[in-house]
Design goal:
CATH topology of the largest domain: Cytochrome Bc1 Complex, Chain A, domain 1
Strand content: 15-25%
Radius of gyration: 29 Å
Number of domains: 4
Distance between the termini: 31 Å
Structural class: alpha+beta
CATH architecture of the largest domain: 2-Layer Sandwich
Number of strands: 23
């Protein structure tokens, strides 16, 4: 795992806690909020739910809807997943498309200002307040602005009656009466500009140019959400207030509230705090978003319009062309959903054919077709692909020929049945898991439905509609729907290339005006493959030992060949099963000379096949099944993982075991991975984040060649034969641990493991030299290592890191170090984002590997202007010194520990949480032994102990620094 991927985990608390070993401990039961002393809501409308008006879609009885005299609409629902939680969403029906002249970026800026200061919250008080209630910044407390709406999000993980009432009161003040002062603007405009600065360079230029191409003549063409520097810097309290008052009105507001609460309580709170909100003046009409139009004189049968070739050195080639039609606000009804199912089947058939073409000699790396309705502005079918080289015409011809065949000849019933079988699994699984759908997702679903002007339905309804539509999935029907996907008012195209002179706008337009050939060679009409036809792994072997591990009813199963398994029927997650297989040596299995094959393995090891199954055959044998096959390399182990269900568990285990028993080494997936890596390499120079993605793990590992991003020269020297030579012995290594957690029949799971992993030959031990390989930290205390990027001159990044520890013996300390890092993170955000406005999202995270001794580090990372690099180091060092000298404050502890406590309480109800804590425990008893203290480690560690950890680890003579600056700019 690279440093950047670890950082991304740190940005997503659910992923982060999943990597932390937990405790089988008693957690206080979360009381649900009752309807005691409830003032009866006045405006609930059980007989006229507003979201179902004008549709024949059956009403979901779990939802209750209300509409107040001021026009504000709300939806409330009881949901106890997870227990004690309430999620609130407030949608304002205005985004960037609603901005007038001089207001570019105001919708998004107002999102920031709303959190800054409001009627009941002083300057900068909102985020700390919600953190003290256990709401993590960025996940539980957030907002989003799109072209068409702005949504404010708050999830209260421990919604006690008083805090729930207070939360709704505070939100009402934020939405209705933000302060919008000069001081607020002075604080938030730099933050928004920092966010914009993080995006400038190729990413923003490409986004702007492609949007201007596809949506020429529409407001969307020149209304980016982030806005312009000129309008943001020119924002005044009066101007922002005008935007707020124009669109932040009750008749333009929708609220959803879902959680472990009587829904009448939620309705009552909405009515109490939003019912007296009055509309001032007449409602402003929605702007005319425009309609895509073909240029005068274009061919009505092939109306090619705007085409753009953009040259961005270092960027990999990509092309997208779009069939654009006017946006039509549909009436969401049963027939519309039946027709969309046929559309989905036709689209899936083409995408499968395009993938087959890419695998079998196509001139493109990947390709896909995607139908979307875009921001109430256009209905579009996008075709996107990546040419393998400068022969973009050949790649375009290949892609168009596959689509042309789909538009000329109906698909076979076999192809249709294949995609329908996949939909059957998806819809059935949604029904199975409907009882464990999180309230936060349900609230988000309502916001999305309102945004697109449609209704909501239950998973049972979708499954029923799908099953009742079986006789409509005919070759002729799918053919007709597919042809409709490629009808258009205008066709527009955008080609991105790193090489000047490779193509012109006119050449791209001319290529699209040519009639394509048809290629039916990749039609997927082959016979189905059954797991029953595949040879057994070996002779099934019964377990030699079975014992409880002392955590819930989890069983450890041991086999004579050395394989060990953990099996648990969690009992509360219908339709969800996770299979994880840990084996071998992980990154320890590679040297600098073989590291290129580690990177290729992450991309192509699964695709290279196994036994009788190549990549195409794996797809065919898994039709109609819920089976996954992910692969990753951890510090001390390799990991296969798949999400499945009990009905498909035996087949899931077969695929994993067969990869170890009889790996294949098909060349094409390996060569495709090589091509992809080569195409991407030049992009690592284009901005500070890309440079860190390329080099940071290498630097923080003391320039260990295993963690260097492979260069084009190294990739050129890699071969499919070399891949086999490196990986074949690694796949024979032990120990092997098989973890099966979720909604399972335990005995059936054990029987399936016995027939697959129990039947493997004994695994080879890892040799001492491999086991001895460590991850070292570079010498610290010196000047920053300076890296250079070729992007915008206003972009820079800086990193400061300290070595920590590793290994499961220090598990308890690792949690406390993580808590210390969260305190550090809050302080660095307050300093760099909230006060200085120099960095949009500075991060602090702790990485403490448990499967190897050592290799841990505490990392602080931020992007900023080049002139702020030295202040970043000074601020970071000052925070580290203060934590070591004075320790954290009580406020620090509350803001960091309470969100972690609530997160643990919420997610421990899921089997994935326990799997992530216990994986590896069949060979490491420390993981179980230290489990019980997890919640205590995160929530009850005294500040004096955290101060001692700061003194131990945050020593400046051990700190390693990196600065990423624009090329040719001195520090």
């Amino acid at each position: 795992m690279t440093v950047l991927s670890r950082l991304l985990c740190a940005l997503a608390p659910l992923s982060l806690i999943a990597s932390l070993p937990l405790a089988a401990q008693d957690v206080a039961e979360q009381p649900s909020v009752s309807a005691d002393a409830l003032s009866a809501p006045k405006y609930l409308e059980p007989d006229d739910p507003w979201i179902y008006r004008g549709t024949d879609i059956p009403v979901d009885p779990e939802w209750q809807f209300g509409e107040m005299p001021n026009g504000l609409r709300y939806a409330v629902r009881n949901n106890g997943v997870p227990p004690g939680q309430v999620s609130i969403r407030v949608r304002i029906g205005a985004g960037s498309l609603y901005e007038g002249k001089g207001e570019a970026g105001f919708a998004h800026l107002l999102e920031h200002l709303t959190y800054r200061e409001s009627k009941y919250l002083g300057f900068g008080e909102a985020i700390p307040k919600f953190q003290r209630w256990g709401a993590a910044f960025g996940s539980d407390t957030n907002a989003e602005t799109t072209p068409t709406h702005t949504v404010y999000k708050l999830t209260l993980p421990n919604a006690q009656p008083d805090t729930l009432r207070e939360a709704v009161r505070l939100i009402s003040g934020m939405i209705r009466e933000p302060t919008l002062s000069k001081a607020d603007l002075a604080a938030d405009v730099p933050i928004v500009l920092a966010e914009r600065r993080d995006r400038i360079g190729p990413e923003l230029r490409i986004a702007d140019a492609s949007r201007e191409t596809f949506f020429k003549g529409l407001l969307l063409a020149d209304h980016s959400v982030i806005g312009t520097v000129e309008d943001l810097q020119g924002a005044t309290p009066k101007a922002v207030r005008a935007f707020h008052d124009r669109w932040y009105r009750p008749d333009n507001t929708t609220i959803a509230a879902v959680g472990d609460v009587d829904p009448r309580v939620l309705a009552d709170l909405v009515e109490q705090y939003f019912g007296d909100w009055q509309n001032e003046g007449a409602k402003t009409p929605r702007p005319d978003f425009g309609t895509p139009q073909a240029p005068a004189g274009s061919d009505p049968d092939n109306p090619v319009g705007q085409t753009t070739v953009m040259v961005e050195p270092g960027q990999p080639r990509s092309m997208t062309y779009a069939y654009l039609r006017p946006y039509v606000q549909v009436t969401d009804n049963m027939e519309l959903n039946r027709r969309r199912l046929i559309d989905a089947v036709g689209e899936a058939i083409i995408n499968r054919r395009l993938e087959a073409r890419a695998r079998n000699g196509g001139k493109f790396l990947y390709a896909g077709v995607d139908h979307q309705d875009i921001s109430h502005s256009a209905s579009a079918t996008f075709v996107s692909f990546a040419p393998l080289d400068a022969d973009w015409q050949g790649a375009l011809s290949d892609v168009r020929s596959v689509i042309a065949d789909a538009l000329e000849t109906p698909p076979s019933q076999e192809e249709i049945d294949r995609e329908v079988a996949g939909l059957e699994v998806a819809f059935t699984n949604q029904v199975e898991q409907s009882t464990i759908q999180a309230g936060s997702q349900l609230a988000d679903d309502i916001m999305q439905a309102v945004d697109i002007g449609e209704s909501v339905g239950t998973p049972d309804l979708f499954l029923t509609v799908f099953r009742q539509s079986q006789d409509r999935f005919t070759p002729q029907a799918v053919f007709e729907h597919t042809r409709q996907l490629f009808e258009a008012n205008v066709i527009r195209a955008f080609y991105l290339t790193p090489t000047a002179g490779e193509a012109t706008d006119e050449q791209l337009g001319a290529a699209l005006r040519e009639m394509p050939d048809t290629d039916g060679s990749v039609r997927q009409d082959g016979p189905a493959i059954s797991f029953a036809d595949l040879p057994p792994i070996g002779v099934a072997q019964a377990p030699v030992a079975t014992r409880p591990i002392g955590v819930y009813e989890i069983q450890q199963i041991d086999y004579a060949n050395g394989v060990k398994a953990l099996v648990w029927n969690s009992g509360n997650e219908p339709g969800r099963v996770t299979v994880r297989v840990r084996f071998g040596s992980g990154w320890r299995g590679f040297t600098g000379d073989t590291a290129v094959y580690a990177h290729l393995g992450e991309m192509a090891l699964v695709g290279a096949g196994e036994g009788m199954l190549g990549q195409d055959e794996i797809e065919r044998v898994t039709v109609g099944r819920k089976i996954g096959f992910d692969f990753r390399i951890d510090d001390g182990t390799f990991v296969f993982e798949g999400l499945t269900r009990q009905a498909d568990l035996a087949d899931q285990l077969y695929l994993f075991a067969e990869k170890l028993a009889h790996p294949r080494w098909d060349k094409q997936p390996i060569e495709r991975a090589l091509a992809s890596s080569k195409l991407a390499y030049d992009s690592y120079d284009l901005n500070p984040g890309a440079v860190l993605n390329r080099d940071l793990e290498y630097l923080l590992s003391n320039k260990d060649a295993r963690f260097a991003t492979p260069t084009p020269k190294q990739l050129d020297s890699a071969t499919a034969e070399g891949m086999r030579e490196v990986w074949e012995p690694l796949l024979k290594q032990g120990p092997v641990e098989v973890d099966v957690f979720g909604d399972i029949d335990e005995q059936a799971a054990i029987d399936a493991i016995s027939k697959t992993f129990g039947a493997l030959p004994a695994r080879l031990p890892i040799d001492r030299e491999t086991l001895a390989r460590s991850i070292d930290f570079p010498p610290g205390g010196g000047a920053p290592v300076v890296l250079r990027h070729g992007g915008d001159e206003e972009q820079a990044a800086a990193v400061i890191a300290w070595p920590s520890g590793g290994g499961s013996a220090g598990l308890q300390e690792s949690r406390k170090v993580d808590l210390l890092s969260r305190i550090f993170s809050n302080r660095i955000v307050d300093a760099l984002r909230e006060k200085a406005g120099s960095s949009y999202s500075p991060q602090v995270f702790s990485d403490w590997p448990t499967d190897i001794a050592g290799g841990g580090r505490i990392v602080v990372l931020a992007q900023m202007p080049p002139g702020q690099v030295d202040p970043f180091f000074a601020t970071t060092e000052s925070i580290a010194a203060d934590l070591a000298q004075n320790g954290p404050s009580e406020e620090d502890l509350r803001r960091a520990a309470e969100p972690m406590a609530q997160l643990i309480t919420r997610i421990q109800t899921g089997h994935t949480f326990w799997l992530n804590q216990l994986e590896g425990s069949t060979n490491d008893p420390n993981l179980v032994a230290n489990l019980r203290s997890l919640l205590r480690d995160y929530t009850q560690t005294p500040k004096e102990e955290l101060q001692m950890l700061a003194q131990k680890y945050l020593q400046m003579d051990k700190a390693f620094k990196v600065a990423v600056l624009p090329r040719d700019r001195a520090r």
